[in-house]
From TrEMBL:
NCBIfam families: PRK02948.1, PRK14012.1. GO terms for biological process: [2Fe-2S] cluster assembly; intracellular iron ion homeostasis; mitochondrial tRNA thio-modification; tRNA wobble position uridine thiolation. Coiled coil: none annotated. It is an enzyme of class 2 (transferase). It catalyses: (sulfur carrier)-H + L-cysteine = (sulfur carrier)-SH + L-alanine. HAMAP family: Cys_desulf_IscS (MF_00331). It comes from Scheffersomyces stipitis (strain ATCC 58785 / CBS 6054 / NBRC 10063 / NRRL Y-11545). The lineage of its organism: Eukaryota, Fungi, Dikarya, Ascomycota, Saccharomycotina. Gene3D superfamilies: Aspartate Aminotransferase, domain 1 (3.90.1150.10), Type I PLP-dependent aspartate aminotransferase-like (Major domain) (3.40.640.10). This is Cysteine desulfurase, mitochondrial. Residues 94-458 form the Aminotransferase class V domain. It holds the Pfam family Aminotran_5.
Length: 493
């Protein structure tokens, strides 16, 4: 009944003026009660009404718009609460796994709803208003996505996410130039989808060099220069590592690539909107973006593809020739618009987010590194470290046991793609960590909606549970007794 009424209202609204559809203004009468169409919007409005600043003036007249567009400082708590599920799952763990995915910003959801109800035209329909209006919105989103990395909107190709984009760049560019070039350079600590694409290219006859990293996770520029060959076509080095948060020297890498006429691709899934990136200043030719790492919807991302000097690539998905012929398929306007809004917000609130995340990160690090026998994985240099990713090893404890003891906090020991396997992290191995250290590491992800109270809770919980688990560890007991574990000859059975 309710759904039918919503549909009828949506139809009516579409007929009168589809451009001005705003789902927030829809209300339907169910029984004797008037209900809002969007539950998220309703919860924002509800919270907004409770917000002290708004209520001081006029609690009853506070609109969702006035709340969601206020500066982030004032609305952080309201937005934070709106990202929480209030009814279905009961009390849920504190979320500190933002590298796996970020909660959708309610402002993004608001934007998307417009396209799920009224504005349903195919953006590639060029013969009528339904197509024109969504196409206009798609192009607006493209501008927002481009602006974050100072690119031209024409250089943004929408894809299904960073996995597809990485495949597109690492397979597409070498395939296009395969007659003359046969060599690709990447690193040992890339995301699985980059490593797997590179292995795929080896199967097709390309040579791949996997650069090592130092103990902080950084590549050496001398190693890069030494690896370059006459037939090197592509260098792919990730911007921010998803497990340890280390930031590679993009500008220096870009300079080396340009001097050697080699295309430079960077997987910026964890970096886009979080660190400063200027594709022109950094000589980046291709760049991967994922919407669900920036508080946008899942299932959409983009590839930045430089137009001058032009980068050519063999498309992986062919068909209708959309997206400059580089990625065929009908675009999804709700996803594109949500992604665009997420990108717009990242740019607009970057300074605020940076300050908020850095402050909480410093507090968390201080609170956890004061625990004996702990170690920070990544770089100590703030220039080379993204603060929202804190990876710490707790010696003499299995990371998996610690995760089991921390059911009230959603955490991970590394990449979500490999979290089902009990293999120690290949990223930490590449840093020189042994199995024991790699097994005892936990990644803490801090984002826009993380609060100070949550960080305080996490510090206390980890302190208590590390102490509890170590009390059960014979190794920890031996260390307390002053025994040097390296001097022990363990029996083989
Ligand atoms: C560094 C990095 N690259 C690529 C991906 C894949 O992104 P998507 O989920 O958009 O395919 C991720 C996601 O975890 C990532 O962290």
């Amino acid at each position: 009944m309710l759904t039918n009424q919503i549909r009828a209202l949506a139809r009516q609204a579409t007929r009168t003026d589809s451009r001005s559809i705003n789902v927030r203004s829809f209300t339907v009468t169910a029984g004797s009660r008037t209900r809002s169409v969007s539950s998220k919007t309703r919860s924002i409005r509800h919270l907004a009404t409770k917000s002290s600043t708004a209520s001081a003036k006029s609690a009853s007249s506070a609109s969702a718009d006035s709340i969601v567009t206020t500066p982030p400082t004032g609305s952080a708590i309201t937005l934070k609460s709106a990202t929480r599920d209030e009814s279905q799952f009961g009390t849920r763990p504190i979320y500190l796994d933002v590298q796996a995915t970020t909660p959708t910003d309610p402002r993004v959801l608001d934007k998307m709803l417009t396209f799920l109800t009224g504005m349903y035209g195919n953006p590639h329909s060029s013969t009528h208003a339904y197509g024109w209006e969504t196409d206009k919105e798609v192009e607006k989103a493209r501008e927002y996505v481009a602006a974050v990395i100072k690119a031209d909107p024409k250089e943004i190709i929408f894809t299904s996410g960073a996995t597809e984009t990485n495949n597109m760049a690492i397979k597409g560019v070498p395939r296009f130039y395969k007659k003359t070039k046969k060599h690709i350079i990447t690193t040992q600590t890339e995301h699985k989808c980059v490593l797997d694409s590179a292995r795929h290219m080896q199967d097709e006859g390309f040579d791949v060099t996997y650069l090592p990293v130092d103990e902080h996770g950084l590549i050496s520029l001398d190693d890069l220069k030494a690896a370059i060959r006459k037939d090197t076509i592509l260098v792919s080095v990730m911007a921010v590592n998803n497990e340890i948060g280390v930031v590679q020297p993009l500008k220096e890498i870009g300079k080396i690539c340009r001097e050697n006429k080699i295309f430079f691709h960077t997987d910026a899934a964890q970096a886009y909107g979080k660190i400063d990136i200027d594709v022109n200043d950094m000589n980046i030719d291709l760049l991967s973006i994922s919407s669900h790492k920036i508080y946008g919807p899942m299932g959409i991302g983009a590839c930045y593809v430089r137009r001058r000097p032009r980068v050519r690539l063999d498309p992986i998905i062919t068909g209708g020739g959309q997206e400059r012929g580089l990625r065929s398929g009908t675009l999804s306007p709700p996803l594109v618009a949500g992604f665009g809004e997420a990108a717009r917000l990242m740019k607009e609130e970057m300074d605020y987010d940076k300050a908020h995340i850095t402050r909480l990160s410093n507090k968390l690090k201080e609170g956890l590194l004061s625990i004996p026998a702990t170690q920070l994985n990544g770089s100590n240099n703030p220039e080379s470290q993204y603060p929202g990713c804190v990876n710490i090893s707790f010696a003499y404890i299995e990371g998996e046991s610690l995760l089991m003891a921390l059911k009230d906090i959603a955490l991970s020991s590394g990449s979500a793609c490999t979290s089902a396997s009990l293999e120690p992290s290949y990223v930490l191995h590449a840093l020189g960590a042994d199995d024991a250290l790699a097994h005892s590491s936990i990644r803490f992800g801090i984002g826009r909606f993380t609060t100070e109270e949550e960080v305080d809770y996490v510090i206390k919980a980890i302190n208590e549970r590390v102490e509890f688990l170590r009390k059960m560890s014979p190794l920890w007991e031996m260390v307390q007794e002053g025994i040097d574990l390296d001097s022990i000859e363990w029996s083989g059975h």
